[in-house]
Amino acid sequence: MTNKRILIADDEAKIRRVMTLLLQDEGYEVRAVEDGVSAVREADRFHPNVVLLDHQMPGMTGMETLKKIKEKHPATVVLIVTAHGSISLAVNAIKDGAYDFIEKPFDNDQLLQIVHRAFEYKSLSGELNQLRQRFDEPPSFGQIVGNSVRLQQVMAQVRKVAATPATVLILGESGVGKELVARSIHHLSLRADKQLVTINCGAIPLPLIESELFGHEKGAFTDAREMHRGTFEQADGGTLFLDEIGELPLEAQVKLLRALENRTVTRIGGKPVAVDIRVIAATNRNLEEKVSQGVFRLDLLYRLNIFTIQVPSLRERREDIPELVNYFITKYNRMLEMNVSGITQQALNRLMQYEWPGNIRDLENAVQSAMILSQNGLIDVDQLPMRIKNYPLSLEAELLNDEAPFRKANVRVEKSLIEEMLKRCDYNRTLTAEALNISRKTLFNKMKRYGL
Fold first, then answer.
1. What is the pLDDT of residues 234-280, one digit of tens each?
2. SS (H, E, C) 322-359
């Protein structure tokens, strides 16, 4: 499998065929599907470097497909192709992670030029990430922001286990900061002066897994033009971080288990090589459930699950949101050369109420987007993403948004009175309404408003 893989998703067969032939003539390995659902499925199997997505497709739009692909394969470069282009659509596509935006009908040379730039961008991004891993100042706890009780418990576990050589399994939802926890363990350990090597087990094409993990000798297979040291050897003396370990195919799990047990690896076409590494793994999956399903080895789980750290979701530590928001504002003021001074209380209330299915990564994207749209250097509700500003507020948040203190007091008193009367009437709504001298419908509406 080459590293010049392109996935095309377009519901027009003629467009798919034209694009496929054009790109194949340029030496790209191309696969084409007719809708967004198929594109997401094919991206998991094919692991494309670049994806060309038609915006208008049946079942799932290009924008929806973009979000799903970027969520599972963040390093994939996505181009939106549409005959219904607009500036607002282009802005939204790029904000959601698209690299560029192409309008139909397109010029063949222009398309090839944009695809070529997309591959250059992916190559440079990969080199930049490697340089950052190698030369960045050790973050320790510097990038883990917050003072909640749940986060402090995680930090205490990190300090304890960092001083040992124990294998660590980090659990938590996508976007909670599992990699930051892994980096903190490494930088507080005795291996801090050595390299931390990260590999995403869910992002490696199946035929390349063994080569990526253990390396290969020159001439071991057709494309092996030179010797390659796998991630185990690259991490020798330091720490190997196996991200998304739950996505590793069964065939590779056997060889990984053997390498962990023996601390030796064998390059494809080579001899066994001893390695001295500390292993940290992370997953957002329930590995015990995957064991029961027969897709994850129990002996590998035992080997990894020596010391477990459960990273809380953002909704479990909402009290950290104000500090995280300030951190991201400072970060993107520097990166984007902006001068956003802060956020209004109303906007912060919205962020505090939202469920954050994407956790800290989701919050960071929301803050960055709001900063770009902010007026007068201050983030307000109107600049927040639609899904957040339209999210229903709780009564407490409504009271915080209401600047009339007399009304706040009346609402609190009324809620408390209804609660007390419901208890006295054994939660019989008819009796409660009669006791309060209001209609049953009025009582029902007030209970619904106050969440009773």
1. 999 999 999 999 999 998 999 999 999 888 998 888 888 899 999 99
2. HHHHHHHHHHHHHHCCCCCCEECHHHHHHHHHCCCCCH
